[in-house]
Amino acid sequence: MTIDFDVVQSDQAHLLHPLYHPTAHQQPKIWVRGEGAFVFDSAGQRYIDGLSALWNVHIGHGRAELAAAAAAQMETLGYFSAYTGSTNLPATELATKLSTLFYPQINTFFFTSGGAESTESSFKTARFFWKAVGKPDKVKFISRMKGYHGVTMAAMAATGLPAYWPMFEPRMPGISHIESPYPYRFHSERSDVSPGVAAADLLEAAICRRP
């Protein structure tokens, strides 16, 4: 694929990347197309897209039927919100369809634009619920070390990767981190402590610890 401008130079001059240092983008891969589970860089090299882009290309790249469906929808209505007093057919149809695919108790849906927004919405929904049932002091969240939850403020605070924290401190209060259930790296001086026992102890400590 021929590219008629200096992509790397333009990228470095005009595009901000999430959670990175400029030295990591001196020679970035330039992804130009995808076919199914594969992606291709600007040099024509093929790679397996093992991360599904960023966990969001669930059914592969280059799906002509998806492009056609998106084009047809944008020709009809590009976007409209579902704020108070508004709705739209695609969102309503999708929510109705999803309600037939899940357990009967899961029958109402809130659509977001990505993982971080989904995390933030989950935090807000949990706090809203406990306030609505008369327990406004239930504001604590427990998160696993090594878990990643997104680039927004609360999602970053919940993320169990300390390298992401320093430049954004102070983090949102009320989040306790416990170790991940990771038997391969687990080590204890006590012969009677298994990964499961250790995880249970850490969870109990996090619940008892005040935010």
Molecular structure report:
The protein is an alpha+beta fold and 211 residues long. The protein has helices at 7-14, 52-55, 64-76, 89-99, 115-132, 153-158, 195-208; strands at 31-35, 38-41, 46-48, 141-144, 175-178. The protein has a 3-stranded antiparallel β-sheet with strand order 1-2-3, with no helix packed on it. A hairpin with a 2-residue loop joins strand 1 (31-35) and strand 2. The longest helix is centred in the middle third of the chain and has 18 residues, at 115-132. The radius of gyration is 22 Å and the shape is globular. The mean pLDDT is 87.
Outline:
The chain is an alpha+beta fold. The chain is built from seven helices and five strands, in the order αβββααααβαβα.
Tag the structure with descriptive keywords.
35% helix, globular, alpha+beta, Aspartate Aminotransferase, domain 2, 7 helices, two-stranded parallel ribbon, Aspartate Aminotransferase, domain 1, 5 strands, 3-stranded antiparallel sheet, 211 residues, 2 domains
Distance between the termini: 53 Å
Strand content: 5-15%
Number of strands: 5
> In CATH terms, what is the fold-level topology of the largest domain?
Aspartate Aminotransferase, domain 2
Secondary structure layout:
Blueprint: H1 7-14, E1 31-35, E2 38-41, E3 46-48, H2 52-55, H3 64-76, H4 89-99, H5 115-132, E4 141-144, H6 153-158, E5 175-178, H7 195-208
